Amino acid sequence: MAPALSVRIKGGGVAAACCQTLLTQANVAFRREPAPRPKVPAVMLSPATQSLLTDVFGRRDLLDGLHLVRRRMVTWGSGDLVALPHSAVVVSEEELLLRLAAATPAGEVIGEGDGSSDGLTATWTIQASGSMSGAAPLRDFGSRPATAAQVKLTAAADSQACSMEAVTDGWLFLVPSGGETAWLLAAGGPVETLLSQSRQISPQIDRVIANGGSFPSHPRIAESLCAAGDGGAPGFLACGSAAIAFDPLCGDGTGHAVREAILACAIARAQQLQTAPDDLLWEYRLRLWSGFKRHLEHCHEFYSTGGSSDWWKAQCAAIEEGLRWMATQRSPIPLGRYRLNGFSLERSAT
Ligand SMILES: Cc1cc2nc3c(=O)[nH]c(=O)nc-3n(C[C@H](O)[C@H](O)[C@H](O)COP(=O)(O)OP(=O)(O)OC[C@H]3O[C@@H](n4cnc5c(N)ncnc54)[C@H](O)[C@@H]3O)c2cc1C
User: Fold this and answer.
1) What does the mean pLDDT of the chain come to?
2) Helix H segments across 105-217?
3) Best label site of 99, 201, 289, 302, fewest CB within 10 Å?
4) Which residues pair with 208 in a beta bridge?
């Protein structure tokens, strides 16, 4: 008989919240170890991510009342302004986590305390925070700090449109958060310098209200995404930004964090079904590599067309290095041996 399953979830973000809910729904005992860290001031959730979250938490009203973004306005490279339809919601990470916590059912929680010497014998550790002990080192492709600033919009600004603009030395991303305010993300240089180079976003901003901190925004991936348990040591699965961090300009980090949590929990639970873990772990790596490769390709489209200054060339070179590194990753099995059925993994028919 397979041993009773217990999972240590390390992290305080969206991925960890999803793991807690999914394990609770599957009656798996867990221990959650969050860590305080700065919160991202505003995240925009695509329709696909909204559905994933409402499915995982089983609450249609989970994201009700959030500010809607209906248009995406893009000025990129030498091109003119392009207006595209959009259907996203905007929420601060703090509010999103509060909503997820309120929607999380009570589960079987093991132990209390700080998690360092609690005697918990977990079958798996799900590492859902890159800044906590036990996280695998990340392989960085570039270095691109983005600063966030809360801004007041001018009366003429469209509060239901987000705006992306490539400028000479970087990019700006304006995300309206409701009323007269918005969050401005800037990568490549100080906000004031990039705004002085801006044609599209600068006229929408009345003034900067507050500084919202600085966050890394370049793509990165954990050197080790997962490992089987060994000699009593628990198996290890990295998910969320402890596994892959996405460039917020062209990535859907929250959606990926939810998908990775679904997969990580499905793999941890597959042990209950006495499935050999090796193939499943390769499936996990392959799925995450494939998502990261798609993200690098998407980034390449943006950074190869954004501008011709040294900054743009350096970003492009770092992404190309990532694509070359991805091409060296090898697996003994092909992708797709398993498929997700709801929140469970099962062997594909072929
Ligand atoms: C500036 C910024 C804007 C973003 N905008 C969007 C968006 O619009 N839509 C979207 O889907 N995703 C966005 N993301 C990505 C999204 O926040 C993460 O992918 C998601 O929260 C990962 O969840 P997690 O559970 O893995 O969280 P965690 O691993 O706990 O981390 C959550 C976020 O906080 C950051 N973080 C963690 N620790 C620190 C620290 N010590 N210092 C600074 N930052 C830290 C991480 O880089 C990560 O982005 C953005 C990320 C950043 C940094």
Assistant:
1) 90
2) 191-196
3) 289
4) 151
